Amino acid sequence: MDAFIANEKLSAYTFTLEEMKREKAHVLSQAEEALLAQVGNLSQAPQTIFSMLNNADLKFPRIKDEHGNEVELTHGSYIQFLENPNREVRERAFKAVYETYAKQKNTIAAALNANVTKNMFYANVRKYPSVMEMSLYGDNIPTDVYTNLVDTIHESLPLLHRYMDLRKKLLGVDQLHMYDLFAPLVDEYKMDITYEEAKQTVKDGLKPLGKDYADALQTGYDNRWIDIYENENKRSGAYAWGAYGTHPYVLLNHKDNLNSMFTLAHEMGHALHSHYSDTTLPYRDAQYTIFLAEVASTTNEALLMDYLLNKSTDPKEKLYLLTYYADQFRTTVFRQTMFAEFEKIIHERAEQGDALTPQLLSEIYYDLNVKYHGEGMAVDKEIEMEWARIPHFYNSFYVYKYATGFSAATSFSKQILEEGQPAVDRYLGFLKSGGSDYSINILKKAGVDMSTPQPIREAMSVFKELIEQMEQLTK
Ligand SMILES: [Zn+2]
Predict the structure, then answer these.
(1) What's the whole-number average pLDDT of the chain?
(2) Are 43 and 67 in contact (CB under 8 A)?
């Protein structure tokens, strides 16, 4: 292997070869690998069992809506109920959901426990020091990046507490409850944005990325990269996909609102990341990691948000935008870091030999909620069961990427807006790097060093500005 790596004729393959060599430390003998391959299906069981219970067998009770009508409570309608301006409806939905999970707590704890045990089995046989080390090894992310995220977010929790106070004030309630977190803060403010307007506004918002990026974006708009509207038998949601050698394809289900405009900016961020990497690099280096993917999409959202906030003259619109953005920080950075910390703790406890009983899981989860949301909030007892409804806990040590990705993106957008061209050049360099190096190195070259607290602190400074602006507007 070393001879291949040193061979100049193979220099185009150096990274690929080094990567093979790095992985070799955890590849076992042929007989052992054959055995492991046979337990592959078995290892899916915890996730399959949870998903069957959660998606098929679990039944929620019917609840009364704001008109007193009995209505169906489902996974999908739950979030809508939490966004209901009527507080009693929110509370009823919240309590009904967690009562339902509490009834299944032993079964779900057993499934989660089995998943952690599976992780420990693989970490052990593949000779990793811990489950966390194994989970981060694929992307070659140092565990410092993970612990650094958790520690730096801890420093910034007082900011989240300030946002919670503001939320309490805007909702006009004595105490903020867990079922008030998704309630709309600015009622009846709606932005109607057609697809044509959204395209233009996204283009205007991404102007700081320069002409080359704008041209590529226009090429996508003009050449039917995007499937725009809902249609019979079309799947929901939005994504960008494609194959090396073709242009990217984007699936949307566009509605004439703010959220859909951000979705357009987001998915075109993925599409242009692929476009730049695919047209710059050979096939073997073009595919980027998930760790990097969400950086390209979220940078676009941050730039668009900055543009909209600067353009807005209506205080009500401005407050609507600010709360939209602040909620993204809350759900993508704070909430996902809390999930990441929960995963870290339960794996450490299991690795120390503790049994992950439903009581222990609930205790850890509840304490984290108090820590993150602050003493000023009424952290309802029912929230201790939330661990039981998070599907991502069966895809261990994954959610931290949402928080790091969002932080890196906020940091990039800040640099682009403040520094201009040099930052744009570095950023385009990142978009053209695909997976030609380790994710951490690619970001570092572009000016965002995730092995330090800097990008997360930069993101938090943006969050702080939002809170200050909101405090000003609501004085
Ligand atoms: Zn995305």
Answers:
(1) 95
(2) no
